[in-house]
Amino acid sequence: MSMTRAELQDAAHKAFDPADLVPDAAKSWGLIAEMGWLMMAVPEELGGLGLGVEAAGVTHMALGRALVPGPAIAQMLVITALTAADGLPERDDLLTQAMGGAVMTASLAGYSVAGGLTCVPDADRASHVLVIEDRRIALMPVDAQTLTARATWDKTRRLFDIAIDASATGFTLAEGDAATALAERLQAQRLFALSGDSLGGADAILRLTIEYLETRRQFDRPLAMFQALKHRVADMKTWLAAAEALFWARGNDPAVTLAEMGALKAHTTTVYRTIAEEAVQLHGGIGLTMEHHCHLFLKRALLNCALGGDADQWEEMAGRQALAQATA
Amino acid sequence: MTDALETLRQDVRRWLAAHAPQGWREYCTSNEAFLDLQRRWFATLAGGGYAVPHWPAEWPGGGRSLAEQKVIYEEFARADTPRLLLSFMSTYHAASTLFEWGSAAQQQRYIPRILEGEIWCQGFSEPNAGSDLASLKTRAERQGDVYIVNGQKLWSTMGQFADKCLLLVRTSNEGAKQAGLTYLLLDLKARGVTARPIHQIHGDEEFAELFLDNVEIPVEDRLGAEGQGWAVAQSTLSSERGLTLLELSARMRGALWRIADLIRAGGRENDPGILRDFGRLATKIDATCAIADQFLANRIAGEERVGDASIVKLSYSRTLREFTLLGLRLGGMDAQYHEPITFGGGMETGNWMADFMNSYAWTIAGGSDEVQRNIIAERLLNMPREPKSWTLAGDAA
Q1: Chain B residues lying within 8 Å of A250, measured CB to CB
Q2: Which residues of B touch A214 (CB under 8 A)?
Q3: How far apart are CA A53 and CA A306, in angstroms?
Q4: Domain that holds residue A193
Q5: Which of A70, A217, A276, B188 could form a disulfide with A301 if both were Cys (CB 3.0 to 4.6 A apart)?
């Protein structure tokens, strides 16, 4: 199955109208499952759609653009791990459930904490959670007793801490070297997804900001006529366009390294944060109220900056790699 | 990448291994050496069929698709060959304008001489007509079979070394300011022409100013009709099709080792702050390469939008400033002591103060960053233009 990026974008926009921000969580999740987005990366022989990086990129951008709630990124990590678990007898059954929308979640944190997981979306609705350890990746049942809801400033996501009971039995998806390799793949997938979410959100809030500048009049003219503001918008558009080009270039590069994906995530989340910061400023008084949508984008941007490892961590790693490679 | 393009890439790479000049950076310590190198390298490229790949197929060395040109320039960047600075205006601006507007006689007269090494420059900007080019004042009066031209031109790239000049002049003050412009081909050896090099802040002399004092230009050396100069000039200004920024971005990527060397020389390989700055810069350069690449792909597919080129240029110019500033910073006091420059050495020579100063060339020349931002805001994003009429308090009514 193959679709062009434009066809994919068209389908995604029909599902999630960018004008309908933060759509209802339950309806959104149903729609995501119905659209087949949870099965898109799964090979056709396992019942999936066998779509590649273009579909993943477009999907995460669409989810970011409308500030869609829900555990899509985490669920897709579980699905990737299940797809790789060739030897597990229960694999096909679990995969079918996960692709159908039965929530199975995973941590979106950039680091691990001893004895538990942090930054796990929608864990209260999940039957299982992915646990990535040094030499083992497992799918563990979620025990409601071990959950702590963490109210983030970003109200479009619901994050939990989970204490892991080491004696509980779960499904082992990978062990040893295979687990190490899979863990790196999952990390790269999470970074790419967060990047897509950020670019979609940045695009949406930039458009809304331009609309606002064109509508709002002061000194007998639309704000959009003032060059001081236009130039800031032009800079934002330039950062966004270049970041998006990098997103597709790295996503489609078979030789891309983890450090490069991390630097991509650092870059795209920084662009998102900067554009969302500017959006609040350019909206003036209304921008710093709860009544307006600016803050929703700013808070999701700031959360995306922190999830999956922060810019300091990834830029340092990317710098180390570039230094090792850069010889005359 | 198709097989044919990959074959071309290998051909170019082999050819460059045998023909690309070696040690040219060390050699170019004077304008004389720069001119000598540029002339020899252009002749070598012309002989090899790589000097004018963008020309139409009926001219020798032409007929390459944009995808093929991209491969050729990527290989030039990879081999760190000298950029064709001296002949750039000739092969792009002059040739493209002649292809579009020149009569058969004008093309036959001027195009072959470009391949033989004749150098063209551009006489558009003036002291009081920069971003607002159409307000230019250099005057041409028709007298029989000649125009008599008086005025001053500025920022003529390579003007002091050129043989010919693409000249935009005013033949009328009636109507819109664009409607009074006419396009002429000027022989710089004509009587009344004086070219004076301009010393840029880093010491190179890539530009000249031209003084025109009762210069006679035959009417047959006019391109297009009288009053059509603005339209002809648009061909000149859009003659370069996105390859230069693609090539320059690739060269900046390839020059990262110069900063890496500074980090290693300073023993700062484990300094987290420096590593982050370096990692961030490498990422921004990759983003610039990616947007330049995407721009060209869109152009090949016929999907380019007005303002897309401005995004590429702004992306490149800002990133180049960061690149040179990081080099300058890591260079410490060493970078403060004056070192002789490499003439025509490109944007990244490792002479950090010179490189930093020279990076302004891309934030100012060819449409300043501010003009690019106007284009992005007003033409790509359709934000409203500012009102045209205004008065300052205190101006006479």
Answers
A1: 286
A2: 383-384
A3: 24
A4: 179-323
A5: A276
Closest residue of chain B to A326, computed from CA coordinates: B257
What is the ipTM metric for this complex? 0.95
- Interface residue A265 vs chain B (CB under 8 A): no
A310 touches chain B (CB under 8 A): no
Q: Is A106 left (phi over 0), alpha (psi -120 to 50) or beta?
A: beta
pLDDT tens-digit series, residues A78-127:
999 999 999 999 999 999 999 999 999 999 997 777 778 999 999 999 99
- Is B348 part of the annotated catalytic residue set? no
- The half-sphere exposure of B87 on its side-chain side, counting CA atoms within 13 A, is 26
Q: State whether residue B210 sits within 8 Å of chain A by CB.
A: no
List of E strands, B202-279: 207-218, 222-223
CATH number of the structural domain spanning residue B334? 1.20.140.10
**Element holding B167 (H helix, E strand):** strand B164-170
- Strand ranges of the sheet holding A116-121, from the earlier edge strand across to the other edge: A116-121, A159-163, A147-150
Domain that holds residue B51: 3-84
Is A289 within the bounds of a domain? Answer: yes
Contact criterion met (CB < 8 Å) for A319 and B387:
no
What average pLDDT score do residues B115-120 get? 96
Helical axes B308-331 vs B256-265, angle rounded to 10°: 20
